[in-house]
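Justification of computing resources. Each target in the renewal requires a structure prediction run like the one illustrated here; the chain below, 483 residues long, is used simply to show the kind of job we budget for.
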Amino acid sequence: MSDGAGCVPGAPGEGDRQTVVVIGGGFTGAVVAHQLARRAPARFRIVVVEPRSALGGGVAYSTADPAHRINVPASRMSFVPSDPCHFERWLKADGALVEDPEAVTPDGRAFPRRQVFGRYAAETMEPYLLAGAIEHRRDRAVSVDRSADGGCVVHLAGGEAVAASFVVLAATHPAPAAPAAFDAVLGDPRLIPDTQDRAALDALSPDARLLIVGTGLTMADIVASLERRGHRGPIVAVSRRGLLSRGHADRPGEFGAFDRQPARTALELLVRIRRTVEAAGASDIPWQHVLDAARNQGRALWTALPESERRKVVRRLRTFWDVHRFRVAPQVEAAIARLRASGQLEVFAGEPVSARAGVEGLEVAIRRRRGATETVAFDAVALATGPAHRGICDADPLMRRLAAAGLVTSDRLRLGVATDELSRALGPDGAPSGLIWIAGPLARATFGELMGLPEVARHAEFVACETLRAADAAFQVEVRAVA
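Resulting structure tokens:
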């Protein structure tokens, strides 16, 4: 994908501006809006609907917790896909690393606090907001209706209705869904369903006995945050397989060419990756280089798999992929290691099967993997099971209304929303309306890996380009009709 305003030839003049409404102003939505504004100045009226005060931060980078760090080295993080060093240059000029010497590892890599990346994203967007090239509505979208002119109207919670030619849906991180085991204690203040709510952790007693359901990156954030606060109570983390997110290699690199005659089955892909890891190890190359090669070739690998094989990847391999692909920052990895070594943190494979409110806490029955079921009382239970993408078209109010209107539908893999190869949302009939584009993780069923920031940024750029092409095509049709 090229950079600059040349993405779409023959762009119409300012008098023919169309409106693009981007729903969700976290990282994904902000990159879409930024790319539209950069590539086609004055071509669009760009409206971003986001309740937060700043654009670009979203759930991940709006956190003010100093223990929360980016999980990818700064050298691989960028708001501008065509400029991979964009954040790294900003970081050096800003001086944030001077104020946070712990951010830099002995080998020179930088893992700054996430709020720093959020500030960088907001500052990148600021010139476009001040110039009026991008408008920020601090509100929530509640519904989208088709309009008589072939476009649509986006209705906001505050009562405003914004007429749009196109909508980009970039609201990608719904809160975790509570496992059925906790149905009996839903609403109990000792159950923390959304750990992004810092107040919930603030309310914990330093001696509280805490159960964390999930052992991935969210769990790692919780543990690092609690250690920084001086938490003294025991912490138990449980997931079905008890797998922790792995750490980074001591040097960057890639090893492996999986997109040459890509695998046609999940088993073949797994075997090829394992054999490549073995070959890499024989040459003293870290396994992370193999996974990074597979990640960067991910689109070709995913599209080569039939749907039945994609389903196998999701059901059988996804957990293992996630813990190797989505790595933890070295500072957070060290915090987990310290608490495990001291015995304060216990991590094991198992599954909560029931919970009830007891006098001494929430009594949770946990079935250990290949073991007995035991009931343990905790002062609090935190859910760290990740965003509930699987049922988003049923659980999220906006998505539910879009589905009822026939504008979106869940994908068959239940990873998010069904899209075509251009990332246009598909209706229940399998056809795109041409009104709504999906940017970010909700489009994973079509595009494969879309959870890591570099992949999300590239996909957001792709969606911006496709929106421009659609607008140009519509304009050319209008011109021919008038002629």
